[in-house]
Design brief:
- InterPro entries: Calcineurin-like_PHP, Metallo-depent_PP-like, PAP14/16/28/29.
- Residues 69-326 form the Calcineurin-like phosphoesterase domain.
- Its main location: secreted.
- This protein has helices spanning 18-33, 100-114, 134-141, 143-147, 167-175, 240-257, 306-313, and strands at residues 61-62, 68-74, 118-122, 152-155, 198-203, 214-220, 270-273, 289-290, 316-321, 330-333, 336-340, 357-367, 373-385, 392-400, 405-406.
- Helix 2 (100-114) links the parallel strand 2 and strand 3 (118-122).
- It has seven helices and 15 strands.
- It is globular.
Amino acid sequence: MKRATMVQPSSTFVNINKKNLWVSLAIAVLSLCFVPINVSAAVRRHPPQQHHLSRKPSPKLRFGRNGEFKILQVADMHYADGKTTPCEDVLPSQVDGCSDLNTTAFIHRMIEAEKPNFIIFTGDNIYGFDSKDSAKSMDAAFAPAIAARIPWAAVLGNHDQEGTLSREGVMKHIVGLNHTLSQFNPSELHVIDGFGNYNLEVGGVEGSGFVNKSILNLYFLDSGDYSTVPAIPGYGWIKPSQQLWFQRTSAKLRRAYMSPPNAQKSSAPGLVYFHIPLPEVASFDSTNFTGVRQEDIGSASVNSGFFTTLVEAGDVKAVFTGHDHVNDFCGQLTGIQLCYGGGFGYHAYGKAGWPRRARVVVASLEKTEEGGWGTVKSIKTWKRLDDKHLTAIDGEVLWSKKHTGKVE
């Protein structure tokens, strides 16, 4: 995201000018109709394309024998050129020796501490302006996940394409890396806005009755970079073609989940990942979220209606974004949790003395009457800080078959 003006949590919220709000909504409708610091080195937006990358069959994601599926979200690495890249917004005592390598070390620490089943990078993975070679920067940025041989996926932010590769080129490079499950775009569609719209299915435990059924659905979308409509300033948004793909995919997965064998009565829970937050995130205040809000919400200046699309689909339980580095909260709106990952990278704006952080999400299965594993019973989350102890904070239940609330 851009360098933002920092706002204290107690004074973040401003009154919305109703006249400006109606003007923005009118424009929207028209547009749619048309690791501690001193670590060592050891440790253009393009029109839709009508071709797709061929991919080898991807390994199947599934829940572990402990009945859990753990996801590590890495938001806004802003990786550039490694050890020569300076850190931003750290304490004066931390400046010396701080670089992209601190970001790399943080990922290694998180992998070792949490042992995730899957890693998701939610955009601005590299900072194109400061990267001499975008491909090399991406290779280095994703290296910890690749070295750990952990399946991973990525979506694009608004800065990934600002270097030596176009937005299309960046996604093509990501898709070609080892151990990634990222996809260029849906194979069944010839035209869809953006690069990196896809879904992944998470199967049940090996040997259980749900081994061949997706019991957790993951959706990934390209939220764009900047508006291409002259009358509309600011960031991009999720377009009608992407929303239609999501609707059809969600409906297809619902039918499969509710069909034999082991037909279920409702949808499998879904999680959605993209970079730029939805405008609805601005509706939260300190009384109805967990975490902190320290800067303005960097959403598009128009509302494309994607949140309504998510609500209507009925399966999505949580949405995870990045973009606003010093916001790290989750808030529930109309049954859907809207969550920030929290700023991860050291070559990204932050707040000196406020540690970089990562979000962890764990989906847990219920036990069947026979003592085996069934479907998802709860989805929990917490964050870890890049401090001496990788301190875990803000544990909460995002969704369960019974209730949501803070984890005791």
